[in-house]
Amino acid sequence: VTDSASSPSTVQLRPDLTTIPVYVPGKSWPGAIKLASNETSPPPLPSVVSAIAEAAAGVNRYPDNGAVAVREALAAKFATTVERIAVGCGSVSLCQQLVLATCSPGDEVVFAWRSFEAYPLVALVAGATPVRVPLDNEHRHDLDAMLAAITDRTRLIFVCNPNNPTGTAVGRSALEKFLDAVPPHILVVLDEAYVEYFRPDGFDPEDMPDGVAIGRDRDNVIVLRTFSKAYGLAGLRIGYAVGSPQVIATLSKVYIPFSCNSLAQTAALASLAAQDELLARTNQVVAERERVREALLSAGYTVPETQANFVWINLGDSTEKFAQHCAAAGVLVRPFSSEGVRVTIGDPDENDAFLAFALSEGATSL
Ligand code: PMP
């Protein structure tokens, strides 16, 4: 029995959590054109919706904790084995599991900055230390600087390829050179959430990075992919990791039981069955991305070449004003304070609405 006079009167929470920021998702409201979260604009295919509806009748039962059917379908897709595949509640959950699987408190997680907002958060929640390595002047990964940031506390390196929010990509040869230089006890996570939007145009086809192929013979490489973007299932939360069986097996120890739900698993299977149709949709996104980028460049904006389903506009101090005026015009983009905005490529009409604002005198004179 504790002495109530000396014990605190409020719940004792982890003190370090008070300094960890909360993940802030892109905002929206009914009627707004939301180009803030890198989702796909078209709804899921009818075949996927009916598979979800059918599976809904079985949600009185728990999902398959091992997601075996999805992992088998992915193993067939990548000509590999199920032992090399883990499924998670979105790839963001796998980011957290990978940090929990590799880092003890005080260990370091290296990543480029800016990059995906969740990397520092999942590191901090695990008690690890985020190490941010600035992007180069062209908004690309500075792989040499990332190598130089490695210490004897480094346990994990995230390489987001293409990078969120800048859309810039690391080519295959640069990536392989980097991986050759990373000590084999450090896990490198190639986060390929947007890989389906890679196109060789403006990019040497021989140099197309494919993490799954690159990681096949490297035990310290894990590739992350998701059904949230090109596969259009952001609302259901399912992503996957491909890599060495030893790392994959350890991910199940830090998996929240049943967190990848049965509707998500069913939808992922139905989407893999329709992947040709879904991947064909990415062609329009890529064509629109080039159209939007060209229009922005002609208007004098700085927009790096992008291999993702979004563009980055470097705006410096005008960032907040640009995003606010854009929202007032009914289009929501994602501002990154004093740096720039990330604009998701939507349907042609949505992109036109964004360009009508971005090319207006009010925006270009900000
Ligand atoms: N990685 C990157 C680079 C992302 O941009 C995102 C989503 N914004 C994710 C991972 C997470 O995606 P999800 O959890 O929906 O699979």
UniProtKB/TrEMBL annotation:
InterPro entries: Aminotrans_II_pyridoxalP_BS, Aminotransferase_I/II_large, ArAT, HisP_aminotrans, HistidinolP_aminotransfase, PyrdxlP-dep_Trfase, PyrdxlP-dep_Trfase_major, PyrdxlP-dep_Trfase_small. Residues 33-355 form the Aminotransferase class I/classII large domain. The keyword Metal-binding does not apply. The modification N6-(pyridoxal phosphate)lysine is found at K229. Its cofactor is pyridoxal 5'-phosphate. Keywords: Aminotransferase, Pyridoxal phosphate, Transferase. Its EC number is 2.6.1.57. Pfam families: Aminotran_1_2 (PF00155). It catalyses: an aromatic L-alpha-amino acid + 2-oxoglutarate = an aromatic oxo-acid + L-glutamate. One of its GO terms (molecular function) is aromatic-amino-acid transaminase activity. One of its GO terms (biological process) is L-histidine biosynthetic process. It is an enzyme of class 2 (transferase). The keyword Transferase applies. Homodimer. Aminotransferase that catalyzes the conversion of aromatic amino acids and 2-oxoglutarate into corresponding aromatic oxo acids and L-glutamate. Belongs to the class-II pyridoxal-phosphate-dependent aminotransferase family. This is Aromatic amino acid aminotransferase. It comes from Hoyosella rhizosphaerae. The lineage of its organism: Bacteria, Bacillati, Actinomycetota, Actinomycetes, Mycobacteriales.
